[in-house]
Specification:
5 helices, 22-stranded antiparallel beta barrel, mainly beta, siderophore uptake transmembrane transporter activity, TonB-dep_rcpt-like, iron, disordered N terminus, about 725 residues, cell outer membrane, five-stranded mixed sheet
Length: about 725
């Protein structure tokens, strides 16, 4: 039998936790590495440098959330997994089961509005409006958060950072896990069930296999929004000799049912309407016209061969295909304050107009990255030189139709919503957006990591060539965007013997924009945004103590931001406000993240983030304004206490608190869009049955079921955050 989890192996800060997770986890050698990451900084997140570099020696700020932490907190989305990471805001646009919206240092790093999506170090394809990937955390080994510009190794990315998901892969040790889980939401009157399995074993000294699978079905956080998920991921690793490994991985994920995303009115969410607020579990759409179905396929290859004398070659390649189908009835304006005569039953302050849409999309992409690594010395200087070429190709199409407005009946009471029906919708669709894109990126990069005594230096450079061909089949138009950029970075770390490691770095980013030139006041394509970051930090990991602390200060500047045309011109056939590219934003921040085990039974995670982001160039009325949807403060504290002796041996309990500060919904800083702060509480109780491999746990997220607004981007576009979620788990490991 496998030993039970002891201590907070989420942070894995003590040698006993290391032993426990090695025995109680999934049997992978990588697990012991992840544990040491948090404990000593002496392990690696290979995505940061694409080499096996200890995190404490890296001049980039990095956080790793390992498998054990995800299990302890019973996370069911990638966003949940990152809730206790400094500089990261999870679900910045509220509860949405279609995708994981994430921001890092104020910039998108996942979701519909971002192209910073990476799995196993390879970029995922973009897609149309709703055709984006999502990953169940049960299939992940860890999540790496690389903070700051990462363009030198990864090409076109935003300057805030990237989130890299690391999938489970075979190991040469037999292991297994079975998971049964039940969830309830809000007042615990809606339930969801999940069953999962993770089994792996060596078939011989040279072949190992692994299979991960799950199925879930049930209700969600709002009423009448049931959905299901099915996930399978087989993989096999071959040892082709002592110095060569080759891993093949397949993955299929099917999501079907309803979407939890809703546009909500400002009156009734951010502000009371008739003295009341919309309940967290309200469904303002139509159950008969709410679908989000997605098929997601991945096939990947990971090859490595090590030559003699410190040389190695690696190739990572993946093919991804996604297709989606979406239907929704959403807001058509803010809550009506006066009732027109043509809406029978209208209630002032409680009735809303609505609209209905349908969309289909497909996206497929290839990503490949070939690297050559050389380790050698020139006198007293040791080098790890990495050179590589990567290529990315994506091809997507998206069709969106609207239902005839006369058929979409208003919702009469937002506080007690009653469906009005979707009769005739399917026969009354008309095209709104029919488009697609073919995008390509090729990058050449070179990096040298130097070691001289206790000093670590890193310098890297990259050149990118990117092409985007966009088409609009409704008006038979298209345009081509070409971009080329050189980016570089430099950084250093000094390792003091007593555990202090100051570091500093400079890095750059570039990100092409795929906006239609018809929205540009000049009629020309938009140029890529560019970014630069200066960062200074301190890491502290005293020898022999289970403490790992990081404090960093950074400034990010991003150019070529889009802003509304100061002249107020309107563009295109719909006469929407024109945009011009004259903006610049500056993001100054402080981050603290600490993980420690002050006693053998207690583990703590503490984070704090302060970001002051403002417009430094742009329309005169906006200069000096705070950039939108960036909280001024964030902080969190998580604790895990375990009883390790006596009659209660095996019991553990803990919880956390998460604070998100004030923010603005719009760059205009209109007081109407001032988003207030909120504080959320989490808790858990766990019992690891001694010497059995069996664990039982109950986790509650947002314990008080606090109603809060994540942000508002228009009077008819406010978003509630996640309400109370109670999760009961039974896990058996061997």
């Amino acid at each position: 039998m496998r030993a039970r989890l002891t201590g907070l192996t989420i942070a894995a800060l003590v040698p006993s936790a290391l032993a426990a997770q090695t025995n109680a986890g999934d049997g992978s050698d990588a697990i012991s590495n992840e544990i040491v990451v948090i404990a000593t900084g002496q392990s690696t997140a290979s995505a940061s440098t694409k080499t096996d570099t200890p995190l404490i020696e890296n001049p980039q700020t990095i956080t790793v959330v390992n498998r054990a932490e995800m299990d302890i907190r019973a996370v069911d989305t990638v966003s949940d997994a990152l809730s206790y990471v400094a500089g990261v805001q999870a679900q910045p646009q509220g509860n949405d089961n279609r995708v994981d919206e994430i921001t890092v240092r104020g910039f998108g790093a996942g979701g519909f509005g971002s192209n910073n999506n990476f799995v196993d170090g390879l970029r995922l394809p973009a897609g149309g409006q709703w055709t984006r990937p999502a990953f169940d955390p049960f299939g992940l080994q860890q999540v790496d958060v690389l903070k700051g510009p990462s363009s030198v190794l990864y090409g076109q990315t935003a300057p805030g950072g990237i989130v890299n998901l690391v999938t489970k892969k075979p190991t040469f040790r037999a292991h297994g896990e079975v998971l049964f889980q039940g969830q309830a939401f809000g007042d615990l009157d809606r339930a969801r069930l999940l069953a999962g399995a993770d089994v792996g074993a060596p078939l011989s000294d040279n072949v190992a296999v692994r299979f991960v699978g799950l199925a879930s079905h049930g209700e969600t956080r709002a009423k009448d929004m049931p959905n299901s998920r099915y996930y399978i991921a087989p993989s096999v690793t071959f040892r082709l000799g002592a110095d060569t490994t080759w891993t093949l991985l397949g993955q299929y994920q099917r999501d079907e049912g309803a979407s939890t995303f809703q546009f909500l009115p400002m009156r009734g969410t951010l502000n009371a309407s008739n003295g009341k607020y919309i309940p967290l579990d309200a469904n303002l759409g139509e159950p008969g016209w709410n679908d989000f179905d997605r098929n997601q396929y991945l096939v990947a290859s990971f090859f490595e061969h090590r030559f003699g004398d410190g040389f190695a070659i690696r190739n990572n390649t993946r093919y991804t295909k996604i297709d989606s189908f979406y239907r929704a009835v959403v807001m058509g304006g803010d809550t009506l304050t006066a009732c027109p005569a043509n809406i029978p039953g209208c209630i002032p302050g409680q009735t809303i107009q609505r609209r209905a849409v349908q969309g289909r999309g497909e996206s497929e992409g290839w990503a490949t990255d070939t690297q050559i690594e050389a380790r050698f010395a020139t006198g007293a200087i040791e080098h790890v030189v990495l050179g590589g070429v990567d290529y990315f190709h994506t091809d997507w199409s998206h069709d969106r139709d609207g239902v005839a407005p006369a058929l979409v009946l208003p919702l009469l009471d937002i506080f007690d919503p009653v469906p009005r029906g979707a009769s005739g919708y399917a026969a009354a669709l008309s095209p709104q957006i029919y488009g697609g894109a073919v995008s390509k990126q090729t990058g050449l990069y070179l990096q040298d990591q130097l070691s001289v005594g206790n000093l670590r230096l890193s310098i890297g450079a990259r050149n990118d060539w990117a092409t985007d061909n966009l088409s609009n089949s409704l008006n038979n138009t298209g345009f081509r965007l070409k971009a080329e950029a050189f980016t570089w970075n430099i950084g250093g770390v000094y390792l003091f013997d007593f555990g202090l490691a100051p570091y500093a770095s400079y890095s750059e980013s570039f990100l092409p924009l795929q906006n239609d030139p018809v929205t540009n006041a000049t009629g020309q394509p938009f140029v890529p945004t560019t970014g630069q970051q200066y960062e200074f930090g301190l890491r502290y990991q005293p020898p022999g103590q289970n403490i790992y602390l990081t404090l960093s200060a950074f400034q990010i500047t991003q150019q070529n931001l889009l802003t509304a045309d100061p002249a107020g011109a309107r563009c295109g056939p719909t006469l929407t406000p024109c945009q011009v590219q004259l903006g610049e934003g500056r993001y100054r921040g402080l981050e603290f993240e600490g993980r420690a085990t002050p006693t053998d039974a207690l583990t703590l995670i503490a984070t704090a983030t302060r970001i002051k982001a403002k417009v430094t160039e742009g329309a005169a009325a906006q200069i000096g304004n705070a950039l939108p949807q960036i909280p001024d403060w964030q902080a969190s504290l998580f604790a895990d206490y375990r009883i390790k002796a006596g009659p209660l041996d095996g019991f553990g309990f803990g919880g956390g608190v998460r604070y998100t500060g004030d923010s603005w919904g719009l760059v205009s800083n209109d007081p109407l869009f001032a988003i207030p702060s909120y504080t959320l509480f989490d808790a858990f109780l766990r019992y690891d049955v001694p010497d059995s491999g069996l664990s039982l746990a109950v986790n509650v997220r947002n314990l008080a079921d606090k109603r809060y607004v994540a942000t508002c981007t228009a009077t008819q576009a406010c978003y509630y955050g996640q309400g109370r979620t109670a999760t009961a788990r039974l896990q058996y490991r061997w």
